[in-house]
Amino acid sequence: MRATSIARSFVTAFAAIALFGTCVARALAALSFVDLPKLVDLSSPQLSPDGRAVAVVVRRADYEHDRWDSNLDLVDVATGHHRTLTVDRKDVSSPQWSPHGDRLAFLADVDDKSQIFVMPMNGGDAIRITDAPRGVEQFAWRPDGAAVAYVAVDEEPTKKGAEKYRDAFAVANNAYLSRGPEQPGHLYVVSATGGAAHRLTHGSWTVLVGESSSTISWSRDGTTIVFARAANAILDTEDASTVWLINAGNGALHPLTRHTAWERDPQFSPDGTRITYTYAGGDYQFNPWESYVTTPSGGAGTNLSRPIDRAVGDAAWSSDSSALYVSVNDGTETGIFRVPLAGSASRIDLYGVDVGSPLAGAVGRNGALAFIGSTPVQPPEVYYAEPGAAPRKLTDYNERAVRAGLSPAESLEYTGPNGFHEDAVVTYPAGYVRGRKYPLVVFIHGGPTSASTRGFNVRAQLMAGRGWFVLQPNYRGSNNLGRAYQSAILHDVVAGPGRDIMAAVNALRARGEIDDRRIGVSGWSYGGVMTGWMITHYHLWRAAMAGAGVHDWIVDYSLADDIREDVDLFHGSPFAGDLAEWRAASPLTYARQITTPLLLLSDVGDVRVPMPESYELFRALRDLHKPVEFYVYPVSGHYPSDPVRSDDIARRWVNWFARHF
Predict the structure, then answer these.
(1) Assigned domain for 206 exists
(2) What ranges make up the beta strands (E) of 156-201?
(3) In this structure, is residue 238 part of a structural domain?
(4) Strand stretches in 214-289, DSSP E
(5) pLDDT confidence bin for 42, thresholds 50/70/90
(6) What is the residue range of 489's domain?
(7) Is the predicted pLDDT of residue 277 greater than 80, yes or no?
(8) What is the pLDDT of residues 522-543, one digit of tens each?
(9) Count: domains in the chain
(10) CA-only gyration radius of the chain, Å
(11) Is the pLDDT of residue 318 over 80?
C-alpha cells in the first residue's frame, strides 16, 4: 500500500518544553473545528538563485464553494514581507525559478488542465507557454533559460461513429474502477516564450506521471535530459521504473544503469558531471529508497546514503556539485543530511523544526535552506536556515491558529518486540496536569512506509483539544528507524506491527496517567488495516475508527491499484500460493471477536483500498449484532481532497470518540 504524506513546522519557544519529562503542558484555548478554516496550507518553497526571496504556494479553504484557492507568494528573506504574485489563477502549483532568477515558471489550470506560465520578475503579467490537451505533469528549465522540458499525457485516440462505443479494453493489473486503458506520458520541449512544442519521445511506454511522477533534469550543456520511465502508465506497473537519458537533439535513448526496476528521481549535478537517482533494490515497503550517484556514461554508481540507514524521501545537489542534501524520517523527526561525495554524512541541526517540503529548488548557493517547517505547537510556515544557524521563521500565515492554543508533544522511546528500539509521538491533552488520568486515542499512521513525526498534526491537536492523550506509534515497516526495522514487516504484515503498537500503548500506560477505561484506536489506510487488527486481537478499546482499511487482503489484491505491493508483502499471490496466509492477516476473518464499537469511513471511488472491503466488515458486524456505523463519501480517491469533506471526516472521527468516552 502506498503511503501518503502531510506537511509539518517550528517555533523557537518550543525548545524550552521539548524535553517534557517533568513539565506541565497547558494549552490556552485548544484547537477546535471552528479553527480549521483558518489554517493555511503552504507548499513548494523555491529559493531564488540570488538567495533573496522564496516563492511559495499558498492555499486557503473556501468552504462555501468547497474548494482550495491557491496563489503564488514571494517572501523576502531579509524581512519576511510577502506579496502575492498571481491573481485569478486556478490551482497554482510547482513554481520554479529560471536559471538566472529573472523569471518564475509555475503551473496553473486552464479549462481544468495544468499549463505552464512564465512570469517576468521585473514586472508584467505571466504568459502561458503550453497548450497540452490533457495538461502538463511536470517541467524543468533548460540551463540556458531559453526553453522548458515538460511531460504531458497522450490524448485518447479519436473515434467516430459507432467506433466511439467499441470501448472494451483488456484488463491487466489496473484497478477495478478503471474506465479505459491508461495513456502514457511523454517528453516535450517548448520555448520559454511559448510557441509550438517539440515532442521528444513516443511509444506505449511512459515517462512516470500522476502519483508516480518523477523528476526530469537537464544536463548543464542542455543537450541531454534524464528521466524515469516504465513499461506502461498503469500505476502498479510504474513501480518497475528505470532511469533513462535522451539526446534532446536527435532523440537517441539509453538506460542509465542495468537495474530493471525501482529507480526514480534522477538529477544532473549543476556541473553536469554526475547524476543522482534513488533506488530501492525491491519493493520500497521493506527496501528503503537510497541515493546513488553515477556519471552520465552510466553504471549503478555509488550508494551515498547507505551510512545514514534511513529511507531517502528526496534529494538535491549542492550548488558546487560536491554533496547531496537528502531528507529522511529519522526517529520522530523529519530531518536533512548533507552527504558529501567524499567524506561522512552530517545531519543539519534544525533545532526541532520538522521539514514538510521537498528539497528541489530549496538549497541556496551558500548551503542555506528554504523549507516549510512545523512543530506540534506551530503550524506550517516558511523557514530559512543558514549553515550552522537556527532556522528563522519568515512568515505568519497560520498565526490565527497558533493563537487558538496548541498542545505540545514529545517522543516516547521504548524496547519493542524482537528487541527493536522503537518510538512514538505523544501529544498531551489540553490543560494537562501531571498525575491526573486522561483518555487516550491511538492514532496509527498509514503507509506502512511512512512515520509519525513531531510536526504539526491537525487531527492530533483536535483530539488533544478534547482533553485526551494522543499516541502516534511507529511500527515495523515504518521508514524512520533503519533498514532492519523497515524490512521486518515482510511476511509479518499485521501481527508484528500489532505487537509494536501494543508495546507503545503499554509504555505510555506505565506512566500511570491513562484512564484504562477510555482508550480508543484509529487510523486511515494502513492505519485502518491496523485498527481492524487491533480490535480483533486486543480488547482494551472503548471505541475504534477505521478509515479506508484493508479488511480483506484477498479482495484488496483482486481490486486495488497497487496489487504488486500486496503480493510482495506476502509469500506471493493468494491464488497461486498460500490463500490461508492472506485470510489469517485479514481482520474480516476475526469479525466474531470484535467487541469494540467501530466507525467505518471510506470513499466510493477509492481504488487504493476499495470500498467493498469496508462493506464486507460492516455487513458482518451488523449481522453479528456488533456496534458499527459506516459512512461513505461519493468521491474518487483514497481520501477526499476537498476541504469540506476533509473537515467532515475530522468531525466524525473525533466526535465518535467523544461519544464513547
Answers:
(1) no
(2) 185-191, 198-199
(3) no
(4) 217-218, 224-230, 242-247, 253-255, 263-268, 275-279
(5) very high
(6) 403-660
(7) yes
(8) 999 999 999 999 999 999 999 9
(9) 2
(10) 24
(11) yes
The answer to whether the beta carbons of residues 315 and 304 sit under 8 Å apart is no
The answer to whether 555 and 610 have CB atoms below 8 angstroms apart is: yes
What percent of the chain is predicted at pLDDT more than 90?
93
The residue behind cell 484509529 is 522
Going by pLDDT thresholds of 50, 70 and 90, the confidence category of residue 4 is very low
Going by the DSSP 8-state scheme, the letter that residue 654 receives in this structure is H
Q: How many whole angstroms separate alpha carbon 517 and alpha carbon 540? A: 8
Tell me if the bond preceding 133 is cis, omega within 30° of 0. no
Residues 543, 525: Cα–Cα separation, whole Å? 18
Distance CA 60, CA 104 (A): 22
What the block records as the C-alpha cell of 509 is: 500506560
Residue 334's DSSP bridge partners are: 329
> In whole angstroms, what is the distance from residue 475 CA to residue 452 CA?
10
Please name which of 363, 361, 393 lies closest in space to residue 380, comparing C-alpha atoms. Answer: 393
pTM: 0.93
Length of the chain counted residue by residue: 661
**Mean pLDDT score, 36-50:** 96
136: left (phi over 0), alpha (psi -120 to 50) or beta: beta
Residue 317 pLDDT > 70 = yes
Nearest-angstrom CA–CA distance, 203 and 123: 41
Kindly list the distances between the CA atom of residue 499 and the CA atoms of 108, 220, 417, 505, 510, in Å, as whole numbers in the listed order. Answer: 46, 51, 7, 10, 16
Three cell numbers, residue 453 = 513525526
For residue 590 the three cell numbers come to 476475526
Give the model confidence (pLDDT) of 384-401 as tens digits. Answer: 999 999 999 999 999 987
Pick the last residue of a domain from 88, 108, 128: 128
Q: In Å, how far are 56, 94, 134, 190 from 111, measured between CA atoms? A: 23, 18, 10, 20
Alpha carbon distance 649, 656 (integer Å) = 11
- Please state, in angstroms and rounded to a whole number, the distance separating the CA atoms of residues 354 and 377: 11
CATH number at residue 448: 3.40.50.1820
Please report, as a single letter, which amino acid is at residue 226. V
Section 602-626 average pLDDT:
97
Task: Report if residue 23 sits inside a domain.
Answer: no
Burial of 484 (0-12, 13-18, 19+ CB in 10 A): exposed
Residue 333 forms part of a structural domain: no
Write down which residue in 128, 145, 169 finishes a domain: 128
> Mean pLDDT across the chain, nearest whole number?
94
The confidence score (pLDDT) of residue 3 equals: 61
Residue 1 pLDDT: 73
- Residue 130: partners with Cβ closer than 8 Å, 6 or more residues away: 115, 116, 136, 150, 152, 190, 194, 197
Q: 3-state SS of 322-345?
A: CEEEEEEEECCEEEEEEEECCCCC
Residue 595 has pLDDT above 90, yes or no: yes
